[in-house]
Amino acid sequence: MWIDTHCHLDAAEFDPDREAIAAAAVAAGVTTIVVPAVERANFGAVASVCREFKGCVPAYGIHPMYVDRAREEDFDALRQTLRQEPAVAVGEIGLHFFAEPRDEARQLAYFVEQLKIAREFNLPVVLHVRRAIDAVLKQLRLVRVVGGIAHAFNGSRQQADEFIKLGFKLGFGGAMTYPRALRIRELAATLPLNSIVLETDAPDIPPAWLDGGRNAPGELPRIAATLAELRGLSLAAVAAACRANANEVLSRQ
User: Fold this and answer.
1) Which of 86, 103, 110, 163 could cysteine-pair with 168, CB 3.0–4.6 Å?
2) DSSP summary character for residue 143
3) CA 168 to chain CA centroid, nearest Å
């Protein structure tokens, strides 16, 4: 019924009870979980989790916050992994212009090369775009890929429209559940429904009711209820639309 398009189920935060977390997600109706990698070192963990837990599907990539410890040979490792593992996307890749210090040139080089790899394998991408939306959009216009998801979208309506023109869906999750998140909630309420996918980013970006605690994929239906309320739709309508959107944009190899 539900697709969590972004959940780091391989993360160390889930080591004590990963099986229970996965079972709770299934019980909540979350039948598919996209598990994106963040660096070469966790490609194996992502693959293992996706083999162990039914409904989990992998994406492989190097996150911009991990490029400082990445190496050129990691690109070949990414290609090799994509040949061996049935990934739904290249990700999590992109740009992160929020934290200091940062090496924007290095981030950009790794992002562009991974866009080229996604194009080489005809795969969509799962994008990290924090405080870097215009820079990400610029590269997407230069290196065209088959689409993907702008994860944890928090930009303007104009920026949202640009992603949609390029064949992307926009990921909404726990941040949408906070009443003071006015811009995100306005976007969730007014963007074309066929442009929205749901995500948890678990264990991160917890919804309001977790009071900063560990997020989990089983929270997705309640997060979706916020979207339904904002749009004046039934939960069933939101479930059907967001699932169709995710299936449209993710590769099903």
Assistant:
1) 163
2) S
3) 12
Nearest-angstrom CA–CA distance, 164 and 139: 15
pLDDT in tens, 61-100: 999 999 999 999 999 999 999 999 999 999 999 999 997 7
**pLDDT computed for residue 100 by the predictor:** 78
DSSP secondary structure, 65-132, as one string: GGGGG--THHHHHHHHHHHHS--SEEEEEE---SSSS--HHHHHHHHHHHHHHHHHTT--EEEE-TT-
| One-letter amino acid of 18 | R
Q: Does pTM top 0.85 for this prediction?
A: yes
DSSP 39: S
Across residues 151-166, what is the average pLDDT? 98
Task: Answer for the pair 6, 149: CB distance below 8 angstroms, yes or no.
Answer: yes
Q: In this structure, are residues 93 and 107 in contact, taking their beta carbons and an 8 Å threshold?
A: no
Residue 71: burial class (beta carbons within 10 Å; 0-12, 13-18, 19+) = exposed
Mean pLDDT, residues 22-47:
98
Q: Rounded to whole angstroms, how far apart are CA atoms 12 and 25?
A: 18
Instruction: Report the alpha-carbon distance of residue 42 to residue 61 in Å, rounded.
Output: 10
Distance CA 56, CA 31 (A): 8
Q: Which residues of 124-160 are buried (b: 16+ CB within 10 A; e: fewer)?
A: bbbbbbbebbebbbebbeebebebbbbbbbbbeeebb
